[in-house]
Amino acid sequence: MCGIFGYIGKNNAKEKLIEGLENLEYRGYDSSGVAIVQNGQIHIVKKAGKVCVLKDELLQSDLDGHCGIAHTRWATHGLPTELNAHPHTDSKNQLCLVHNGIIENYISLKKEFNLTTKTQSDTEVIAELIAKIKEKDNLEKIKKACSFLKGSYALAVIFENEPDAIYLAKKESPLMTTYGEDGIYISSDANAFKKYANNFYILKNNEFAKIKNNDIEFYNKNSKINKKLNNFEKTFSFENKNEFLMQDEIMQTPDALKETALFFENFKNLKNYFDNIDNIYLIGCGTAYHSCLLGKKYLEFLNIPIFSEIASEFRYSNVKPSKKSLCIFVSQSGETADTIACIKKCNCKTLAITNVPNSSITFNCKKTILMKAGWERAVASTKAYCCQLLVFYLIKCLLKNEKPKWKQLVSSCKKYLKKNNIKDISKKVLNFEKIMFIGRQEDYVTAMESSLKLKEISYINCIACPSGELKHGTLALVDENTLVVLISTKSSLHNKNLLSKQEIEARKGCCFVASNIINSEIELPNLNSDLMPIMSILPFQLLACEVCISKGYNPDKPRNLSKSVTVE
Ligand code: AGP
Fold it and tell me: What pLDDT score does 120 carry?
């Protein structure tokens, strides 16, 4: 959540910062701002709204400097206004800073240090606090101030008395820096400066950096440290062909699946990791949690207890995995705060399934299976979800010594994405006030994920319900304004599903069926039952995207949301 970018080098910082913010906008887009040093003076420009608003303002300004920091915000404390946007300064303008994370004790710090602030943001307290510290050296000021902070932070700071330097500090929120071809770059996601560098440094918790004179010095709390460089993982690049990233990302699913399946060969030695375990916990949030629900189905053959857990709940539950548990953490971004908090509670085998190498989840888990879905930037997760399910399927095949049939999956997805009727269906969907997705077993999980996708980007109030549960309460909602989408891909349960269709129609509700079994409104290709859930979500990802676009919204940047939920 929130994106930090910084540049100090021989080129124009303004252009670099705009480009960086555009790359990071998926992390938050309520408001944005930059601080650029021109002739030794710090100039701040901030705007409420998307990065393009700030960009227009900056392009018209004659700001010209070689050092700057920038921020795109997802509001946690205070409205998304220009005042609350970063960079923040102290009251005497001795420094300015951008911050990702949450300062949990900002109210008590205000009292303790008698700090006065003009905004509603927790970040301004950090600026005031640093300014108040008596130490002469700027790095020492930051170190001391950080020792009082509780919560999470990635910070980039510029001081008025040292305007040719940028200082960094990190705890929990991601922060990276690199020597680029024309200067030094800073970002909360290395992808944002990948174009300019071959490798990069990742700050660890309680580490600091001083960037000055074309040099990066790293420090921990006590002394200067040496850090090793990380390479960018080789990943195939996808072309952007459509107006929106989400459209591109759905279309990239077949390639993402293929790359993930091929790359899985590197993790076959993890087979032993499943030996001598008593139970398995599958933990994630949102879409990743839905993957966990299906992951449980893939692994049920092991005949040991398997629990799928919502990370934000599990972190506070009294249940603690035992020493013989295996905990699997699923996260596209690898940075989800609730999921990371759960890892810390586990004193057992831990395995990450993620799309982002060198992410916090990979650092915190003992083992990692890396997916190769490619950079996913649209807030709604699509291709990554399919790859997460594929990984669970591949684990199942590995453990059962079966040959995976992913090639079939890839070609079916490709064909379906080329030819489908979702545009027509989406027009009909727009006529209904209420939408429900129903199904049984794996199809119920697909219904949950379909409902999340649609509400997330089109703001339609929709729900998911297991088909058999309708008559236990939810059926009361069904009337002539209700569309129920019945997902039915399991022939053994198909007749039961048709009973639900009749129950809906008897209450004047409209029922569309998505099935590979009978002729239906949404026809699905026939695939092996393990592969079906990976494919059967595609129509509903497309549907959510189509509905969203026809309502005039941007699917990549739904209101109130952010791609990477790095705060609690
Ligand atoms: C997906 O469409 C959502 N935007 C959201 O539920 C997401 O899956 C969740 O926040 C978890 O993210 P992660 O996979 O990066 O951990």
Answer: 86
CA distances from 497 to 53, 492, 502 (A): 49, 10, 9
**Are residues 329 and 219 located together in one domain of the fold?**
no
Same domain, residue pair 424 and 414:
no
Question: Edge-to-edge strand order for the sheet containing 67-73?
Answer: 41-48, 31-38, 67-73, 3-9, 183-187, 176-180, 199-202, 230-231
Q: How far is the CA of 336 from the centre of ligand 1 (A)?
A: 8
Provide the token pair at 200: 């990069």
Cα–Cα distance measured from residue 475 to residue 467, given in angstroms and rounded to the nearest whole number: 10
Q: Are residues 469 and 505 in the same domain?
A: yes
563 catalytic per annotation: yes
The pTM of this model reads 0.89
Question: What residue's CA is closest to ligand 1, atom 9?
Answer: 286
Q: Are 248 and 293 in contact (CB under 8 A)?
A: no
Based on the fold, state whether residues 298 and 382 are members of the same structural domain: yes
Binding-site residues, ligand 1, Cβ < 6 A: 285-288, 331-333, 336, 339, 379-381, 456, 565
* Distance (Å, whole) CA 357 – CA 344: 19
**Residue 482 domain-assigned (yes or no):** yes
What is the pLDDT at residue 171?
95
221 Cβ neighbours under 8 A, 6+ residues apart: 143, 147, 206
Last residue of a domain, one of 174, 204, 231: 231
Residue 115 CB neighbours (<10 A): 19
Question: How many Å lie between the centroid of ligand 1 and the Cα of residue 369?
Answer: 18
- What is the structure's pLDDT at 565? 84
Q: What's the helix, strand, coil split of the chain in %, to 5?
A: 40, 25, 35
Same domain, 154 and 277: no
In testing the pocket of ligand 1, which one of 292, 294, 333, 567 has its CB within 8 Å of the most ligand atoms?
333
Domain boundary among 199, 231, 263: 231
Choose, from 2, 342, 465, 545, the residue flagged as catalytic: 2
Q: How far is the CA of 227 from the centre of ligand 1 (A)?
A: 31
Inside any domain, residue 33: yes
Give the angle subtended at the CA of 2 by the CAs of 121 and 547, to the nearest 5°: 115
175-187 per-position pLDDT tens digit: 999 999 999 999 9
Do 123 and 224 reside in the same domain of the chain?
A: yes
Active-site choice (14, 50, 170, 563): 563
Residues 140 and 79 grouped into a single domain:
yes
Does one domain contain both 403 and 433? Answer: no
To test the pocket of ligand 1, the residue of 282, 283, 329, 336 to mutate (highest count of ligand atoms within 8 Å of its CB) is: 336
Per-residue model confidence (pLDDT) at position 236 = 65
Provide the domain limits for residue 90: 3-231
Number of compact structural domains in the chain: 3
Domain of 499, CATH number, reads 3.40.50.10490
Does residue 565 belong to any structural domain of this protein? no
Q: Known catalytic residue: 387?
A: no
Give the tens place of pLDDT for each residue, 396-455: 999 999 999 999 999 999 999 999 999 999 999 998 989 999 999 999 999 999 999 999
Residues lower than pLDDT 70 in the chain: 235-237
